[in-house]
Amino acid sequence: MQRENGFTKEANLQNLAKRELANGLDKDPIYKLRLQCFSRGATGILGLSRTFRVMDDDGSKTLSAEEFKKGISDVGLDVSESEISDMFTRFDADGSGTINMTEFLDKLRPPMNEGRLSIIEKAFDKMDANDDGQITETDLMNLYSVKDHPKYLSGEMTKSEILREFLKNFEAGAPNPDGIVTKEEFINYYSTISASIDNDAYFDLVMRRAYNL
């Protein structure tokens, strides 16, 4: 039997998240929000982070209660007003009426060990040729490998089609797609892929093969 690859594992994680959301049990609001993001695959947490980034007009990386609520609503996540309020209050520790969106996304993201985070950062740094903290679509076109993608293996999609589809993932949830991927967005995307793969060595292999590390 052919070994399951990262793309199949992502689909399995989506299905598991949907089943857990439907089991009727009470859940911590942050955990529930994470499951909803998982149910959308690797684009879930990424979409929320991009929406928050667009709202952060002054670059302060802070959100008001209204912005926080609007961001979750705009992405279409099913969270009640009381759950949103509970999450916001937890992160507004000093009572200032704002929360640090990076801290919130760090908490929402599934935890990763140093080895996994390191290989994700290596992949990003390889593409960030000018070391400006972001990569462009051209960077990904030149470096992202599709040889393990099931639709490429089956002949359903060409390399160009798969790359275009992949690039759309990094624009998920962005009202104004800009063709730029920040390091935080890259990590947010791969944090969900990481959560779908139990074995550290296999995750490392997936990243190395995808980015020719």
UniProtKB/TrEMBL annotation:
Matches recorded under InterPro entries: Ca-bind, EF-hand-dom_pair, EF_Hand_1_Ca_BS, EF_hand_dom
Pfam families xrefs: EF-hand_7
PROSITE patterns reported in the protein's UniProt record: EF_HAND_1, EF_HAND_2
Chain ranges of the EF-hand domain: 43-78, 79-114, 115-150
Record's keyword terms, sorted: Calcium, Metal-binding, Repeat
GO molecular function, one term: calcium ion binding
SMART domains in the record: EFh
SUPFAM superfamilies, per the entry: EF-hand
Highest rank taxon of the organism: Eukaryota
PANTHER family: CALCYPHOSIN (PTHR34524), CALCYPHOSINE LIKE (PTHR34524:SF6)
Protein name per its UniProtKB record: Calcyphosin-like protein isoform X2
Species annotation: Drosophila pseudoobscura pseudoobscura
